[in-house]
């Protein structure tokens, strides 16, 4: 189940929505949740009771609110500052199970999380969580749109988070390091990584903290249009730190060429196109 | 222990073999190869098809001499250096006291791309000096112009003569000094025409998109990919190490795409820039130009007052004389 237009990504089931005008998030989230209702999912609006979006949902879906198909959930009840990314995601995994058990097709959530993020450390902690949430979205009938007020957080913080989502409305985001489709690798890397996006890329790799399987760390790279030599050196160092060989699966022939020139011991390009 | 003319030397013994007839060529090449094989030294031939055939016919049966495809070996200078360095490291790690190689550039190398092969001949004096290598670079003076022969004598410290002697080249110039003032690249007439694309201060991503838009439909495949890689690395370098403004121009002809990346700086100070990696890429860089040299069919560096330009050619870099 996806949404059309506006967002860039393979599946629009985990959307980072950055806004300067809160109204644009409310409008997108309302449509996103309405799609969920129409598809028979339970939907959660994670917002204070007095939020504009909550009010609109109460107006639009009074019957669904009454029977619990649409819920307005207090952010304090869903986001626990002390929880690690795994515990935080567990909460949504359990809620997805509960929705399925109650006969819904899945769980769909809209949450503006801006107010919970104070400073780079909280942004980093939340970004780690978002990567795990991205995995949950790919694995289960769980979907979410996360709202970020760029005026409060700054463009750089929003980019840190946005590049870990399968989809976002952030313009000019150079790459995406998101969860792979079920049966795929450790993550999916798409877009372009060069000197301009290098710091963001290094940061995303650290935040995602990808774990090798059987000595290999597979990145699904069919959507990776370009990686410069510094990006490949970074991946090589990342793989060595994890005592693994990093496999760029389905990367472009150009990426294979540069990797071969560099003679990287810990990076292998497989199935170059 | 080293045998033959290089006995008692350390590092690279780099000789030119200038010959005017097949007999002169064989008079030097065959004893060189037989001597290497008899001494148990790894002995390698990287000649063109015709001269390799001449040598093969004269070698004793069973002589332990390896033949490489000369055309593959000498596709691009920086790649030839990398390939030979890997080969030398491997052979000497196996305990070889000396490695002997005879190689030959072809007529195709001595035209509009000769400038980067001349730089190659100078640079390998250092690039191969880590190993006990004795090599002969054969040049057929019926093919090589006097100007080419002049550069050969300036880049080779020794000359192997058909009479069996080995003499210092009186014209030899220390490689760093030679590379500080290398021969000019042949101008490409495309550069005098209006470019298909011209962008001032492009980002690397914009430069890649521009190069791909021109080279993709025309050349496709590895040639187009190589140009995109090179343009990206050079625009990144220009912003990082050069001075503004940075300009990208791209021209297209039926058989090639030419791109220039110009900035207002002085260019790299390293005389070996492009031919050898200048670092491991993690610190101040040095790999971008080296990657560009291995991704295009010709790369020329041009220094003028207040401007440094790298010209890249994808597709056919061999212009008619």
UniProtKB/TrEMBL annotation, chain A:
Superkingdom to which the source organism belongs: Bacteria
Matches recorded under InterPro entries:
MEDS_domain
MEDS domain span: 13-165
Name of the protein this chain belongs to: MEDS domain-containing protein
In its UniProt entry, the species of origin is given as Spirilliplanes yamanashiensis
UniProtKB/TrEMBL annotation, chain B:
Keywords associated with the record: Kinase, Serine/threonine-protein kinase, Transferase
Q: The MEDS domain covers which part of the protein?
A: 14-157
Single annotated GO MF: protein serine/threonine kinase activity
Q: Does the keyword Transferase apply?
A: yes
The Histidine kinase/HSP90-like ATPase domain covers 204-313
InterPro entries registered for this protein in UniProt: Anti-sigma-factor_SerPK, HATPase_C_sf, HATPase_dom, MEDS_domain, RsbA-like_anti_sig
User: Per its UniProt record, what Pfam families does this chain match?
Assistant: HATPase_c_2, MEDS
Q: Among its keywords, does the record have Repeat?
A: no
What is the protein name for this chain?
Answer: Anti-sigma regulatory factor (Ser/Thr protein kinase)
